[in-house]
Amino acid sequence: xxxxxxxxxxxxxxxxxxxxxxxxxxxxxxxxxxxxxxxxxxxxxxxxxxxxxxxxxxxxxxxxxxxxxxxx
Length: 72
Prior knowledge:
The protein has one helix at residues 18-32; strands spanning 7-15, 38-47, 53-61. By secondary structure, it is of the alpha+beta class. A 3-stranded antiparallel sheet has the order 1-3-2, with helices on one face. Strand 2 and strand 3 form a beta hairpin. The radius of gyration is 17 Å and the shape is elongated. The model has no long low-confidence stretch (mean pLDDT 85).
């Protein structure tokens, strides 16, 4: 498998409070952690000046190359 290919998608969402932001972060991680096509990078909760909390998660979609190693 070649893990050099991949396209990065950053998940960003503003939430009204930290509790909601933590819930969103956990759900994003739960959604992608067991999927071999996705790699989770940096995860961050950022307090914004307006009182909201931003959830940021780096997600990379990996394109796996599968080679037929069977010889006849």
